[in-house]
Amino acid sequence: MSPLHVVILAAGQGSRMKSALPKVLHAVAGRPMLHHVIATAKQLGAETIHTVIGHGADQVKAVTPETSVNWVVQSEQLGTGHAVAQALPDLPDDARVLVLYGDVPLTRVETLEAMVADLDEQTLGLLTVTLDDPSGYGRIVRNSDDQVTSIVEQKDASESQLAIQEVNTGILAVSAKHLKSWLPTLSNANAQGEYYLTDIIAMAVDQGLSISVAQPGDAFEVQGVNNRLQLAELERWYQRREADRLMTEGATLADPARIDVRGDLTIGNDILIDVNVVFEGKVSIGSGVSIGPGCVIKDARIADGARSTPIA
């Protein structure tokens, strides 16, 4: 099978975050969003992870000590198509290429595995999601045979296209050979004056490629972050997902809404965790453990039967 290369787009400024910190460095579950995406790429078995940076590039590199990352600089932010094009010289012609985003941190590995597992030169993998309110997203246009024919950005969409609820997540997979053919031909003749990566969908259709569509199990998997409200929504979704996992694995939580996991937490059976407990770093908890309210546990291994003692 041809090698998998992942291109992560992380060059945006994120002005709506109202922060001097580059957007992709804002944290979910105690870890920068970009680091979540890099970890996902590594779990997928990527041969090389190409991360396209721009705004705050030095700062992003300084806090991301990943030797497996190939840093690519986008000096001007001219759209997603332009961003991916910056990585083209580093992509082998025979590579399978998966495009991810540094501000979309919580996509499950299982969701992406299906997109890249059987990818070949005659297929383009596309991740879409169906939303009750598709405002702001590019719409997935299908023909009478229900086959994807193009993606239309909201500002360029007709009235009938705006009614479409299936939208583009931006995540796609295709061979490097096709990217090298298509990206140099992109036009910025659109409402935003940008080079859209989504325009390659129509190019793929014109060349007879099959568009293979996948969808996530939950829309939060593909939610991007543009402001602190969305960041908080992702944080709570992540923490609820962790709480559900812990309860399934043998923990009783006094209140599933009042626990925070900010690292890697493994547990035994018959665990009791009271409210407002925070786990940081790498934590392992044995069986029969009881943890009282308000504890912060960091980089620890807790033996079977341990009980926390309240501070007098």
What this model shows, in words?
39% of the residues are buried. Helix 2 (57-62) links the parallel strand 4 and strand 5 (69-73). The protein is elongated and about 65 Å long. It folds into 2 domains: 4-222, Alpha-Beta Complex (Spore Coat Polysaccharide Biosynthesis Protein SpsA, Chain A), CATH 3.90.550.10; 250-302, Hexapeptide repeat proteins (UDP N-Acetylglucosamine Acyltransferase, domain 1), CATH 2.160.10. Helices cover 23% and strands 29% of the residues. The protein contains 8 helices and 18 strands. The chain is of the alpha/beta class. The strands form 5 sheets. It has a 7-stranded mixed beta sheet with strand order 5-4-1-6-10-7-11.
Summarize the structure.
With about 300 residues, the chain is an alpha/beta fold. It has eight helices and 18 strands. The protein has two domains: about 5-220, Spore Coat Polysaccharide Biosynthesis Protein SpsA, Chain A; about 250-300, UDP N-Acetylglucosamine Acyltransferase, domain 1 (3 Solenoid).
Question: For the report, how would you describe the main beta sheet?
Answer: 7 strands, mixed
Succession of helices and strands: EEEHEHEHEHEEEHEHHEHEEEEEEE
Radius of gyration: 21 Å
Secondary-structure content class: alpha/beta
CATH fold-type name of the largest domain: Spore Coat Polysaccharide Biosynthesis Protein SpsA, Chain A
Portion of residues within helices:
10-25%
Strand order of the largest sheet: 5-4-1-6-10-7-11
- Indicate the overall shape: elongated
CATH-scheme architecture of the largest domain: Alpha-Beta Complex
Total E-strand runs:
18
Looking at this structure, what is the CATH superfamily of the largest domain?
Spore Coat Polysaccharide Biosynthesis Protein SpsA, Chain A
Overall pLDDT metric? 95
Strand content: 25-35%
- Report, as a whole number of angstroms, the end-to-end distance: 62 Å
Q: Uncertain regions: pLDDT < 50 for 5+ in a row?
A: none
Q: So what's the CATH class of the largest domain?
A: Alpha Beta
Report the total helices: 8
Number of domains: 2
